[in-house]
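Example (one chain per record):
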Amino acid sequence: MEKDVEIGIFGGTGIYDSGLLEEPQEVTVDTPFGKPSDSITVGIFKGRKIAFLPRHGKNHSIPPHMINYRANIWAFKELGISRIIAPSAVGSLKETIEPGHFALPSQFLDFTKSRIGSFSKEGRVIHISVADPFCPELQESIKQVVNEQGDEIHKDCTYVCIEGPRFSTKAESRFFRTMNADIIGMTLVPECQLAREAQMCYASISTVTDYDVWAEKPVTAKEVLETLGKNVERTKKILSDLISKIPKTKGCICAKALEEAEF
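Predicted structure:
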């Protein structure tokens, strides 16, 4: 298998097909951790080789707590990918972060329960640093693109990642607000930390679909999908312009993440 793909995109809820790629080809990748969420579409966009993988599967058949995050990241690594862009759907924990806006996480709080968050196995111990979990270079490119397009993006957000697939209780939602968190979702962890362990650049673009249940407005899957449907084309436009903005040479240190992490 050729390892010549440059950028990987994980499609989140509502984005199952990037619709951006020329000469698309479906590829399957075997990993030591089982099957990825689906086949991977590889193609060309503006002269750059891109791969697209819907993290929930093309038919949204995989709930967030059952996504094989290790297989997904491993498969991208096997294709040669060094940078990952990860759109996702989130709820808002603050009045000012409105449904329809975009958010850029810079920190996370992990409230998942059953997920495997490392490639470590017996005989190899890795203590990866995620003090700053996301690639600063990718984040800067995202900020530039969204600002140029005139969309609303909330920067430096703290993302609460819950286990799912259920939404929060009112008590949980109010608790997360006391922690000064900004947005809440179900897929960021362990996806971002596995990317760091694999020494890959990673950044998330979050679409705000609703106010979480703290606002006394119970969240429904129907509401989430309606807001996402309105934002799909905006998200694709961001991805389209972002690919052109990403520098071809790296100025970050994501590829050196393991240098001081292993015993």
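Caption: The chain is about 25% helix and 25% strand.
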